[in-house]
Amino acid sequence: METQTLGIGHFIGQADGVAKFLLLVLLVMSIASWYLIISKNVRNAIERRRSSAFLDFFWNAKDLLEVQERVVKHHAEEPFSHLAHHAIFAREHHARFGASRLEEAGSAADFLTRTMRKVIDEETAKVENGLTILASVGSTAPFVGLFGTVWGIYHALVAIGLSGSGSLDKVAGPVGESLIMTAVGLAVAIPAVLGYNFLVRSNRVLLARLDTFAHDLYAFLTTGTQFAATPQTTVRPIGKGA
C-alpha cells in the first residue's frame, strides 16, 4: 500500500528546503525560456512580414526620394527600413553639414559606412537579446536536476540506514522518486536548446539578408544610381529570401 503513495506529489510533499528550492529554480528557468521562445518567435514573424512589405516597396520605388518619404511617414518598424532611414539621413547630413565633428570625419562614403555598420550592430544586438538566457538554461538545467537527484538519493539512503531496513521496496521507492529531479531538469533544458538553435538560425538568415541589403543600399547611395536603371527591380534578391 505504501508504494501506491509514491510519485511526484509524494516527492514534493516529502522534499526538504533544498529540493523545493531547486524545483523552484527549474520552474523559473522553464517560464523564462518559454517566454523568450514564444515572444521572440512572434516578434520575428511580425518583423519578417513588415520587412517583406518594405523590400517589395523598396525594389519597386522610382528613386531614393520615394523611399525616404515612405520611411519618414511610416517610421522604421523593422531592420531594413531602419537601415535605409539612417543611411539616407547620413548621406544628406554629411552633404549638408560636412565633417563638423570627429564622428563625421572622412569622406561621405566613410561616414555612410560607419553609420550603416552602427545600425547593423544595433540590429544584431537586438535580435540576439535573450539568447544568452536560453543558452544558460539549456546548459545548466540538467545539472540542476542532477544535483537534486543526488541530494534526494543521499537523504533517502540516510533515512533507510537509520530505519535499519534495507529491503528492495524500501530502497527503490525513495531512489526512484529522486530521479524525478533529473527528468524535470531535462524537460526544462530540451525546449530551451531547441528554441535557442532555431532562433540562432533565424537570426543568422536575417542578418545575412540585412548585410546584403546594406551593400546594395550603399552602392545606390554612393553612386546615385536610380532604381529604375538597375536589374535589381525585377530580381528582388532580398525581398523573396528565406
Automatic annotation (TrEMBL):
Topology of the protein relative to the lipid bilayer: Multi-pass membrane protein
UniProt key word Phosphoprotein: no
Domain MotA/TolQ/ExbB proton channel: 94-210
Main location: membrane
Subcellular location: Cell inner membrane; Membrane
Signal peptide annotation: none
Keyword terms, alphabetized: Cell inner membrane, Cell membrane, Membrane, Protein transport, Transmembrane, Transmembrane helix, Transport
Subunit note: The accessory proteins ExbB and ExbD seem to form a complex with TonB.
Its job: Involved in the TonB-dependent energy-dependent transport of various receptor-bound substrates. Protects ExbD from proteolytic degradation and functionally stabilizes TonB.
Name this protein carries in UniProt: Biopolymer transport protein ExbB
Originating species: Hydrocarboniphaga daqingensis
